Amino acid sequence: MIANDEAQALQDKALEVQERLIEVYGERHEERESDPVGTLVNTILSQNTNDHNRDLAYLQLRDQLPNWEAVRDAPEKVVIDAIRPAGLAPTKGPRIQGALRAITERHGAISLDFLREKPLEEAREWLLELNGVGPKTAAIVLLFALDRPAFPVDTHVHRVSRRLGLIPQKASREQAHVLLEELLPTSIYYTLHLNLIEHGRTTCVARSPRCEECTLTYLCDYYQNQRRRTSNADT
Asked: 0.90 exceeded by the pTM?
């Protein structure tokens, strides 16, 4: 267990990261999705693709099938063909239909609004029991559609958080959800999540991070370690 003073120092660091990223990317005004089921489907479509292809697939699906019951009951090939722009359609199509069927069987209707009233961890576990729904997808639905305090960790958030030293280097993405939710005040989840993604896409990229352009170098374990290695190599 992290000592209290160490935990406080780490949280102070996270809050400073939040402030610096807001200076660069701005405060994010919370815009909640109106349909939690739509958020779930959209998140499944987003896996291993870009936002443009995800959105195109989602729009095609909604244009061709007027409601979630129609998506659930359509021939599998119809759904697969509709979402082809998102890639991996033969996997994502059955996953989406399976989730819609499971929601119907467990709740009696295709709706997730009832999760607003459940205790947070009970709501999270309900989502995680849907086939193909992992911690990131569950957290996205909770945060963006149900206004619940969950912190989604995608590949960008995971990478940037590890480089900064907010979570251990060996922490898995699944572990990162728990660690970051414990570390961060719930009030900053929304803005920090989006700003970490933006920072990971534009500056703290996977290969050859643009440290010379980064506003977080003095807070970043990765940068400080790299600088020490360079100094040692020069002596």
From this structure: yes
